[in-house]
């Protein structure tokens, strides 16, 4: 059985090339499940794109990134003396660390005197960072190579970034997250002496949404009479065909959070029943014979039972059916680039 992310390589890469051309200084973000493509594949793409620096989410992702990418690796989680001081990779001079306190800077420099750091400012995201009034002193004391700002989703970030720049005018390089192309242009115009480096994942890797697709195999198809009980939970199904497809919880099927459910009704169901329990009440992400059939019951670990209504043409065993999923929570069996 297989649950595969198929990528039209030429088309996908053309999308990446476009984004890189539009966003000078881009720092590709490569973290988590590698946006569904896998982190190593994205590291190879970042090399092809000629990016001098990539950003990873955590120190746990550092060893693989250093092996798969030859340039600088910016770690976006803050370096914390209490957590990371013993990591062997701290000695690697290709790393750029994120710091928010002088205690952490001292610890880092105790391990490697020339360790490079960026200082993260505490923005309206309120995740982590040094308050705007402390960024300048910390950046100067740490001889930081830049300041990083992580902004909430949406727009309207220029004023917030401008406040930081006003407080820390001497820092040249600003790594910014979730800033639009238009906002970047405004910033470049307003602050011609500064360099802005957008850290981008989603808008880069998903630049051309039509260039990739998850497809699952049909493993079995059987007519079922209304009321037939199926599955672990022996629930009665509506009549039609029972279609067994590859793809289950281990691939991330039906694990999406309620806020990503399509309709208010499906969100409400997901909230009251729990996301997985709600699966049989909402449409599955599989497209079979032009419809999106319901789950017969919550997905199993590696396959799912779907009920194709009366009248719909059943697929054949071995057919591939498209699956609509959020790739940041998808774990495909394989990624095939053609
Ligand atoms: C994940 C992350 C990004 C990239 O986010 P996308 O929405 O995928 O572009 C940028 N900056 C920080 C700090 C992040 O954690």
Automatic annotation (TrEMBL):
Q: Which InterPro entries match?
A: Ala_racemase_N (IPR001608), PLP-binding_barrel (IPR029066)
Indicate the segments forming the Alanine racemase N-terminal domain, all copies. Answer: 20-151
Recorded superkingdom? Bacteria
Q: What is the name listed in the Swiss-Prot or TrEMBL entry for this protein?
A: Alanine racemase
Specify the taxonomic lineage. Answer: Bacteria, Bacillati, Actinomycetota, Actinomycetes, Micrococcales
